[in-house]
Amino acid sequence: MTRLFFFGSKSPAFVALTVIAFAICSLAMANAASAAPDPEVHPNFSGIWERTATPLKELAPPAFTARAREALKPKLTPGEAIWEEHGIGVDDANCHPRRQPWMLLQSAPISIVQDGDKMILLYEKRSAPMHVYIGRDPPDPAKVSLSLNGYSVGRWERDELVVDSVGFSDRPGHGSVKTLPFRPTTRITKRFSLAKNGGELKVRFTITEPEWLETPYVYDFTWRRLPYATNFALIELCDARDPDRLKY
Hints:
Largest sheet: 9 strands, mixed, barrel
Helix content: 10-25%
Shape: globular
Number of domains: 2
Number of helices: 5
Low-confidence stretches: 1-9, 27-39
Number of strands: 9
Mean pLDDT: 79
CATH topology of the largest domain: Lipocalin
Strand order of the largest sheet: 1-2-3-4-5-6-7-8-9
C-alpha cells in the first residue's frame, strides 16, 4: 500500500515523462540488438599454409594463342638440354626466383602475415615477398614500376579478399602461365577465402594475358593450415655456383 500511494503521489507530468523515457530506452536497446555486424570485421589469412593433396582444380585448360603455342616449343642451348636430361630446369640451374602465381602453387608452404591494410605472402623457396595493399585505389598499369611480383591491391567483397596484380617485369623465370613470360598486359586476380572453420585457404586465380591466352585462365587452389607451434617459414636460397646447380 505504501508503494502504491508513493507512486500515486507523483504528478501526471512526472508519470508521462517516465513512460516516455522508458519507451526511448527500450527502442534504443532494440535497435542495438538488431544492428548489423561491424562491416570492418573481415577474415584474417595469417598463418603457415601447405597445399592439399590435390590442390589445383581448373575450370578449363588454358586456351593458348597461336603465338603462345609457338613460344612454348623447347628452345634449349646444348648446356640447357643436358640439364633438362637430368631433370634440372633452366630456371633451377640459373637460380631464377619463383614469383607469383607459381610461388603460390609449389610444394613448400607459404607464410602469410596480414593486418588491417596490408598482406604479405612469402613462399619458402627462392622467392621475393609478395605485398598486397588493402584498400588502395587500383593503379594505372601504364604508370606502375615493373617488378618481380607486380603491384597488388586488395579490396573486400564480404568475406573474400579480392587481389588484383599488374606491373610484372619480364625477367627470366616462370611467367603467368607455364614458361611464357609476363607481358605489360598481364593481370592476375585472386579471390582469397577461408573454409572448414579457418582450416583451409581457398583462392580462385584468374589470369588474363591477351598475347598468350584467348580467354582468361581460371583455376582454384586449396591449402590447409599448419600449426604455428611446429611450423614456420624456412627460407631457402639458391647458389648457381654450386657444381650440382641445385644446392640450396
